[in-house]
Amino acid sequence: SDNCDDESKLNIISCTKTQKYIQKGFQVYLAQVTSKKAEDKSEEKLLKDVSIVREFPKVFPEDLSGLPPA
Q1: pLDDT class for 49, splitting at 50, 70, 90?
Q2: Does the keyword section mention Nucleotidyltransferase (predicted)?
C-alpha cells in the first residue's frame, strides 16, 4: 500500500473518533505537533522551551478556570 494512503486513513480514523467523542459530550483539544531535526544542536528545542497553556491564564481565564495549578 502507498504511504500517503496510510496517512489518509489515519486522519479519517482520528476525525471519526473525534466526532464520536464530541457527540458524547467530551471536551476535545486540538494540538499540532511537528518534528524537525536541527542541524545545529544549539537550535534544538527542549521540553522546557515549550509553552504550556495553563501558564497563560489571562488568555482564556473563563475557559481554563478548571486547570490545576502548575
Answers
A1: confident
A2: yes
